[in-house]
Structures are given as C-alpha cells and as structure tokens.
Specification:
single chain, alpha/beta, seven-stranded parallel beta sheet, 24 helices, 33 strands, about 40% helix
Length: about 850
C-alpha cells in the first residue's frame, strides 16, 4: 500500500493474517468468524485493504493467493464508494479491474471471479431489488451468485462486513430478519448457506459478536485496537469542544451560528498560517458543516436556510460563489437556491476532495460513508433527542487533516461543535454516546476551556525558551517497536529531511557485517555445515496407534525430507520481514558471493533463527538508534513541524519512556471556570490580554513570592498531559510514570534568561520521594536548569528543597525513603 501503517495498525494486520490462515484451514468443516474492533480513526479500511492486497498479491508474510475472492458488504452506498475509492487510490499491487462495485441493474454472474473484490451494500438487497429477482433477462440472482461461490471456492471466499454494528440488531437468531443475518446465518428463503469466512470490522463490534455467537461458527480470537493507541498516534483530534446553552434562556440560533462562523474563519486563518510556515504541499481548507432540520412541507428543511446563509455571509463579509456552498440532502439530490445562491448537491463521499467547498448543509446523510477531516467546525439545529445520531456524526469528523498532531497551535488539534438546543445534561448524553461509538478524543464544553496565545510582551522569552530545547519526556504504557524497526524509521527520516543521507545505508552494511561475522564464527568452530544441514533437512517421525492394543503408539518409520527451493525462498522472505522489511538478506547475498544464491539465503535464514544473533542485532540497533537520536534531536526539533512530529513519534514508539525537546506552542488551551481569577505576567493570554486560573492557597502564595524575586519576568502554568508541557519521568512501584511540575518561572540574571521549576507538593502524598528522585535524575541530564524546587508548607511557612543545589543533591543521592526526604527538608529549612 502507498500508506505506511502505524505500529498498532501493523500489529492488527499481522493478527488478521494469522486468523485468515487459520480460518482457511477450518472453514471446510465449520463457518469461521473473525473480527477487527477498533475505535474511530484507527484506519480500519486501510488495515483491511492491506490484508486484501497481501492475500491477492502476496507479501513477505503472506503466500500469494490469486484465486481468492472478497465480498465487501456495508449498509450504505456512500460507505461502499468511499471504501472502494480509498483502496483504489492507496493500493500499489492490485491489478486493474480488481475492485468491482456491484450494480443492481447490470450485474449478472454465475460466480464471483477469482482475484476480485466486490462491493455490495444491503440497500441493494431488499425485496424490491433487481439483484434478488430473476426478471428482465437476469439469469442469476445475487443470492445464487453468492451460493455458487460458496460451493466452489469455500476456503478462499472472504466476506468483509464493514461497520458491522449496522444491521446487527437481531430479534433472536432463530428468526433472522436483517439482511446481514442472512450472510451470517444463511437464509432458507433465498437458498443461501452461511458464508464460510466472515470478517466483521467496526468501532462497536459487540453486537456483531453476540449475533455470530448464536450461529454455529468457530469464533477466532478478536483483533482489537485500543483507543489509547489511536489517541497517542495523532490520527485523531485531541479534543471535541462542545458549545451549548446553560439553560433557562431563550435559544438564539442565528447568534450561535454567527459564533460558529467566526470559529470557522479563525480555523481557516490558523491553518493557512500553519501550512505556509511548515511548507505543506497541500493547504488544509476547513469546512463549516451545518446540520439542519428535516423537510418542512415544500421546503427542503424546516430550518430557515436563507437566514443561515445570510448570517454566515454577514460574518465573513462577502457573498459566496457558486460551488463554495453545497448541500448533501438525501432529498432532493438536485440544485437548490439559498439566499439567492445556487447550491449544488454533492455526494457525501466526494466532499473531502472538493477543495472549493467551504460550507456544507446536511440533514442525516453524513453519519456514515463519509470521512471529512476538513470539517473543523459544526453547527447543529437538531434537538436533544438526536444525541446518539450527533455522536455518530462526530465520529466522522474527528480525524486530523494531516494525519498527525499539530505541535504549534493547540486549537488546530480540536474540532468545535455548536449545539444551541442542548444543555449540560444532554451534552453529557452525547459524551456517553461518543464513548459507545468508539471515539477516543477528549470532550470538553466550550465553557470549560480558555484559548491562550503568546503575550507579545514575552515573545523574546518564548523564542529563547524554545531555542534551549530543554529535555522533556513522553511516557507510554509500553514499548511498541523493537529497536531495529525504530532505527530504520529514524534513518529514513534523516534521509528525507536532509540531515543524513547515508545513515540508512551505513546501518544496513553494518548489519550485513554482523551476519558475515556470525557465519564466520560458525565456520571457525566447525558448526556451520551441521547447522545448514539441520536447516535444510527435516527428520519426520511416523507414529502408529493400535486400537486393538489400547491405543498404544509405536514408531513405524523415520524419514528425512529436504527443503525445496520454494520452501527456502518462502523462509527467506519471512526472515527479511522479521528484520524490519529492509531487504537485508538481499544485500547480504549481493555483498558476499558464495557458490549459489540459495546458499546466501540459507545463511540469512540461519542468522534470523539464532537467538544469540537476534539479541546481538537488537543491542546493535539500540546503540545505533540512541546514537543517531542524540546526535540529531536538537537539529530536527528546530526544523519543520512535520519532521519534529514524526521524529517524536519514532522515538516514542522505540521506548516506554522517550526523550524529546521541549517546545512551547504558539497557542494553547487551559481549563476555565467562572470562579477562576486573573493572574498577571503569564506567558500566554487570551484575546483580551488576560489569563485566569484556579490556584489553591499554596500555589497563589508561592506565585506571589516568585513575582517579588529580583529578575522575575513571567511564568507558565505547566498543565499536565499537554503536548507542549514539560514532563519529567520518575519510577514508582516498578513503573515509569510522568511528572508535570506545576510552574515554570522565567527570570533574568544579568543579561541572560533562566528557567526555574517549581512543584508545590503535599507531604501526605506517597509519591514525594519518587518525584524528588525523578527531578534529581532529570537535572543530571538537563544542565540548563539550576533551580528546581519541591515545596511544602509546615507551620504557615514554605519549606523549599532545591534539587539543583549541589549540597542538596548530595543528600538526594543518599536518600532511600520518605523519611530521608523529610529529614532533608528539616535540615535545609531550619
């Protein structure tokens, strides 16, 4: 495929391949059901497309099966079209004509052809469908085509049910009524057998699982992608911001629509600025989507469409051109006129690529079959009764336009939803429905956050701080990649970004040298020939079981078989895939010529199967990875955002705790509440030049003390779990954890800026000692920060422990418990 899969997608693909192999072995005796469960934005279609291409075209991990057949079933025509287009534009190896959309007018085949992927939606299979009847010269119904394919190609006929939760609402498996159930359970009325191999994929696949459990099927282990993996990848917006009324007042539809239009214009400006600064080849062009009410008499909607467009044009300050405003109403699917403007109909699946489109009016057509990352702002005139539907809709627009997180403007990592007919209770219902729809983005109401930008008074300080590239850490639940995979991901980035064009090639040749040394050592020890013979030949033992003698087993024959060139080639490809898909085996064969090519391959296979050699390789890859990472971290972090984001992702996937460069963003969001109070001299402020916070008594008093220190310039609220915030790693209960100190204080000493880290911390918490050690270890690596204090309050005074002080560091080195820490506080605060 043209798209490089994220690590969690690669893992899911591997598990699906293995399940497919198992299913093909078992399906002659039993129906087999596979499932891919993944949250919204995980790339289910792309994963499945890779699976199809691997099976039809072959890969290092999969034997080519040109005669396999796929039937892709969904509940909606638009979903079919979008899936087909996504596969068509991203597949590298599928032959022309391999993807076929089944037409209810012209399709009439006895059996599905080998090597094809057929797309069908359940709306073409109703009682009145042409496909299901022998009429108008049709020789075969679609049911007959499917049944013939089952009988003739049972172990190579795959059914993929896309968005499997649609249609899986059964009234009991004894009396199946939905069309999907016909495929799963079979249908006597249509002379249809249950499909032999079924793959259901969805964000919410539980209902589908329950349905198939009622069938007589072998349920293979489910393949599941965790929401946190998708969230960490940057493929989804970090936040869904919901703007709703507090309740009690009158509903101001058009006033709120004006707010939505202003938000959309702000996003347009921010994206234009970001894309130009980053040199993006394709500009992100945000869309404002407006969900209106259903038809009212002769009008296409009960919502006043003229007033909507009039309101938006007043905010924008100009009239829209034809093609900038479109509709996606299911009825009518023709041009309509809104406020004097011709507004054409555009199919939902085509909106994303229609670059001229700025405003989309729709009713209910966009909840399925439509992924549009360009939608940055949405307004809905729907009532609170439609909360589940709105949650489904949000699942279609939370994908990030650039398939990555933006590391300079936090607003661009959010999507904004305006709901004038919702209050807090009904918004809570949406949040619950979003979770059930598999949307892993955080949800906040607009009243719970404030958007802040750099105060121009502190622009010089902001730029200086980012230039320092202080160390910050990212903590993951576990390590995702092995070091070899991470190494080549990094060397490819270094080549593409122009930092080191030779790192990849050099690493490959160094690994080839490792292979040569391994083979050389075997030869020196006289072990090579035996190892190669053991690899090429296999001793087969035949056992006989004598039922007349109580089933006692006896060895009847031993025989030796030798691998064919086909077997060697297949194992060679597997070994190459095992070693990060870098064609290292081919490079070894090319570099070190022996008598035959097969002997090259056997050397490489032998190397890949050696536990000692693989451990040695991983150690090499680890050293090389950290060497390159440390050498280029600051250069990459100072470059384009797209390279820094990719670098951070590679490093984060290489280790559970990964080191990065601190880079504050131009625009950030922080919590907001009505009881928050203004604090001066914060580095980031709102459009009115203010920033408000909810500081506890300790924090307020400490901040006031800091502002009185000589040289104080400004401060930053170091909000936990923010991509721009300073994170320090520490260990507790044998786990690596993240630690976000509360304040960054910027002061001036002479003509130089300095940064202090302050952490007011209650002594009753059980993590005091662990965090102090973590801060100490951080300062050993980050020499640019001299003052880093853990602060507590006793007897109405603050006790400060500056872990950057050399005398206190001596104490910390000898600490082993909270008691030792307490003693140090008393010692240094007499």
């Amino acid at each position: 495929m043209k798209i490089t899969l994220a690590t969690f997608q690669q893992d899911a693909l591997k598990d699906l391949r293995e399940n497919c192999i198992t299913a093909q072995q078992l399906c002659k005796k039993s129906q087999c059901v596979l499932s891919l469960s993944a949250p919204t934005g995980a790339g289910k279609t792309i994963i499945m497309a890779n699976l199809i291409e691997d099976i039809l075209c072959g890969s290092a991990e999969c034997v080519k099966q040109e005669n396999a057949v796929f039937l892709w079933l969904s509940g909606w025509p638009e979903l079919n079209e979008q899936s087909l287009n996504k596969i068509y534009f991203n597949a590298n190896n599928l032959v022309p004509g391999a993807l076929i959309s089944i037409s209810d007018d012209s399709f009439d085949e006895e059996v599905f052809a080998d090597g094809k992927v057929y797309f069908l939606n359940t709306q073409k299979l109703g009682v009145n469908s042409n496909l299901t009847k022998n009429k108008d010269g049709r020789e075969h119904t679609i049911w007959e085509t499917i049944e013939n394919t089952i009988s003739r190609k049972r172990d190579r006929f795959f059914l993929i049910i896309d968005e499997a939760h649609y249609g899986a609402r059964s009234r009991g498996v004894e009396n199946p009524e939905t069309i999907m159930q016909k495929f799963v359970l079979g249908s006597k009325d249509d002379n249809l057998s249950p499909l032999p191999i079924i793959i259901g994929m969805s964000a919410t696949i539980e209902r589908f699982r329950k349905l198939t459990e009622g069938a007589r099927a072998m349920i293979l282990p489910p393949v599941e992608i965790k929401p946190e993996d998708v969230k960490e990848s940057g493929l989804l917006k970090d936040k869904i911001v919901i703007d709703h009324q507090k309740g009690g007042g009158m509903v101001m539809e058009m006033a709120i629509l004006a707010e939505a239009a202003s938000d959309w214009m702000d996003k347009c400006s921010r994206w234009e600025k970001y894309c130009k600064e980053q040199g993006e080849e394709k500009m992100v062009k945000p869309i404002l989507a407006i969900q209106v009410e259903n038809s009212g008499g002769s009008e296409p909607s009960r919502t006043d469409l003229d007033e909507c467009l009039k309101t938006i044009e007043r905010v924008v300050g100009r009239k829209f051109e034809v093609g900038e405003v479109i509709h996606a109403f299911g009825d009518p699917k023709t041009d309509i006129t809104i406020y004097g403007l011709k507004v054409p109909y555009v199919e939902p699946s085509r909106i994303e690529d229609a670059e001229k489109v700025k405003i989309v009016f729709f009713k209910e057509s966009l909840s399925t079959g439509w992924d549009c990352p360009r939608v940055e702002t949405m307004m809905s005139f729907r009532t609170a009764n439609d909360s589940t539907y709105i949650a489904q809709l949000m699942g279609r627009i939370v994908r990030t336009p650039l398939h990555r997180r933006v590391d300079t403007d936090e607003v661009l990592n959010n999507v904004h939803l305006f709901l004038p007919y919702f209050d807090k209770n009904t918004v809570d219902r949406i949040v619950k429905d979003l979770n059930s729809e598999g949307v892993s983005s955080d949800v906040e109401t607009a009243s719970e956050q404030q958007t802040l930008h750099v105060d121009e008074r502190f622009r010089e300080v902001f730029d200086w701080l980012n230039e320092q590239q202080f160390i910050t850490w990212q903590i993951k639940r576990n390590r995702i990649n092995n070091y070899l995979t991470s190494l080549f991901a990094l060397t490819n980035l270094l080549r593409n970004g122009g930092w080191d064009a030779h790192a990849s090639k050099q690493s490959k040749y160094e690994i080839v040298a490792l292979i040569k040394n391994f083979i050389g050592r075997l030869k020196e020890k006289g072990q090579y020939e035996d190892a190669i013979n053991a690899l090429r030949k296999d001793l087969r033992v035949s056992n006989e079981y004598d039922n007349r003698n109580g089933g006692e087993a006896t060895v009847s024959a031993n025989r030796v078989i030798e691998a064919t060139e086909y077997d060697i080639e297949k194992n060679f490809k597997r070994a190459q895939a095992q070693l990060a898909h870098q064609d290292l085996g081919m490079l070894y064969c090319k570099e070190y010529t022996v008598e035959t090519f097969v002997e090259h391959q056997l050397d490489f296979i032998l190397y890949s199967k050696s536990e000692y050699a693989m451990k040695e390789l991983e150690e090499y890859a680890k050293r090389k990875f950290y060497d390159l990472k440390d050498r280029w971290r600051k250069d990459i972090s100072a470059g384009d955002d797209k390279y820094k984001t990719k670098f951070d992702s590679i490093v984060a996937e290489g280790d559970e705790a990964s080191q990065h460069s601190l880079k504050l963003w131009e625009t950030i969001t922080l919590p907001y509440g009505e009881d928050f109070k203004e604090e001066t001299d914060h580095m980031f402020v709102n459009k009115d030049g203010k920033a408000v916070f909810k500081l506890d008594t300790w924090e307020k008093e400490i901040l006031d003390e800091e502002k009185k220190r000589p040289g104080f310039v400004c401060w930053v609220r170091n909000q936990q779990n923010k991509g721009w915030a300073l994170c320090i790693k520490y260990e507790m209960d044998r786990k690596v954890k993240p630690f976000y100190p509360d304040f960054l204080i910027i002061r001036k000493e002479g003509d130089k800026y300095v940064v202090d880290i302050l952490e007011p911390h209650n002594p009753v918490f059980n993590d005091n000692y662990a965090k102090t050690i973590g801060l100490y270890n951080y300062l050993k690596e980050e020499r640019g920060i001299a003052r880093a204090e853990i602060i507590r309050k006793e007897d109405n005074r603050f006790l400060r422990l500056n872990v950057g002080d050399s005398m206190i560091q001596h104490d910390v080195m000898n600490m082993h418990s909270d008691d030792d820490l307490n003693q140090s506080f008393r010692k240094h605060n007499p």
